[in-house]
Every structure is written in structure tokens, then in C-alpha cells.
Amino acid sequence: MRLEIRVQPRSSREKVVETGARSFKIYMHEPAIGGKANKKLVEIVAKYFGTGKSKIKILSGLKNKNKIVEIRK
């Protein structure tokens, strides 16, 4: 399953907001420095969908707020 995700780093809150059928906005505390936000994104998506972190892959947008993420079965 592929998801479109917009990340909001350095947010005062951590939460997941569904903005469409397969699109989400994710707020997180971590800054977008040194891959910290991407690592936290994988943790948040895995927890939200009840799957392991190894099943989550960022396909595009490693250095962008807009990302395409794949969840493998």
C-alpha cells in the first residue's frame, strides 16, 4: 500500500491526521536534520498501522516534506 504523507517537523504536538483515502499529515517533534524526522516518520507510521518498522519504506521525498511511503505486507 502506498501513502502520500506531508510531514510537519518541529511541531509542538505529535499526531496523525488523515487528509484523504491514502493521504496523511503527520506532526512530529523531531527536526528535519540528519534524517531524524524520516526515522521518526517510520516509527509513527508503523505504530499507526500496527506493523513493523522494517515493513515501511520511504519511496520518495527523503529531503522533502511531501513523501511517498510504502507499507509492505
Summarize this, please?
This protein has 73 residues and is of the alpha+beta class.
Folded structure, characterized:
This protein has 73 residues and is of the alpha+beta class. It has a single domain (2-71), classed as YggU-like (Conserved Hypothetical Protein Mth637, Chain: A, 2-Layer Sandwich), CATH 3.30.1200. The protein has one helix spanning 36-49, and strands spanning 2-8, 15-18, 23-27, 56-60, 66-71. The protein is globular, with a radius of gyration of 11 Å. The protein starts with a strand and ends with a strand.
Topology:
Layout: E1 2-8, E2 15-18, E3 23-27, H1 36-49, E4 56-60, E5 66-71
Parallel strand pairs: 1-3
Antiparallel strand pairs: 1-5, 2-3, 4-5
Number of strands: 5
Number of helices: 1
Structural class: alpha+beta
- Which segments are poorly predicted (pLDDT under 50) over 5 or more consecutive residues? none
What is the global morphology? globular
Radius of gyration: 11 Å
What is the CA–CA distance across the termini?
Answer: 8 Å
At the third CATH level, what is the topology name? Conserved Hypothetical Protein Mth637, Chain: A
CATH class: Alpha Beta
What is the CATH architecture annotation? 2-Layer Sandwich
List keywords for this structure.
Conserved Hypothetical Protein Mth637, Chain: A; five-stranded mixed beta sheet; alpha+beta; 73 residues; 1 helix
